[in-house]
Amino acid sequence: MPELDTLTDQYLNYLLVEKGLSDKTLDSYGSDMAMYLSFLEEMKINNISDTDTPVILKHLISMRNGGLGARSRARHLVTIRGFYRFLVQEKILKHDPTRLIDLPKSGLKLPDVLSIEEVRLLLSIPDTKTPTGSRDAAMIELLYAAGLRVSELINLKLQAVNMEAGFVRVFGKGSKERVVPIGLFAKEKIDNYLKTARPLILKSIASRYLFVARAGKPMTRQGFWKLLKRHALKAGFNKKITPHSLRHSFASHLLEGGADLRAVQLMLGHVDISTTQIYTHVAREHLKKIHEKFHPRG
Known about the structure:
DNA polymerase, domain 1, hpI Integrase, Chain A, three-stranded antiparallel beta sheet, 3 strands, elongated
């Protein structure tokens, strides 16, 4: 049986090579594994086959007692789950001791998810008769239509959007490529922006980026956050609205409408479906409210 450090190195290498995780994500996994190995050392466990479900639960309890929040513990468990699944896959272990352990309650807490009506209101705010308003409308619409991360949105190239077929090609974390449908509303706003607003913003300057700011440069993350905040305030929202709020809303609304979890996983670009599963809680709460409101015994 290989040593724990060796197995951890193999796991992280697998995440790098096979899963294509970014350096930042890989660092987080490495930190989680270092914390887990430190706990096993304290427990005087030197062999991975000596770990079981109670040991992992004890580790999670010790983290909670040490003041680590539910969100951090949930993400830590996701890392450990991946580690044991990797060991089973490599036939180093026969069974996965994490399979019976649930994520800590409210572990991956979502920021506020907008209702469908709130999204409609926000999307109606930018003045599409002005060049920047047309651009803003197209950007916000696409962010919600495709569930993009803000970094993916601002770095989109012109050729990334297939207007005829109605999809966008995105390079997400770890340079993983995915193709996401964008819908009729986003197509219309992007088409309007490309035909009328973009040439006026560029003023004869060439740019390979779809959404442009001054001098043909792509918009910065901060720049997009500012414009989104400005439109949210104009819409009268009291709660905090961020670019990620629209990504969360995209996923939650799809699941509420009955979309398959794995389809949503693909569209979001999540490597691990456990990351996508955080949205099922929101969908369940939505169904619960519908039941309470409309069922005679609700």
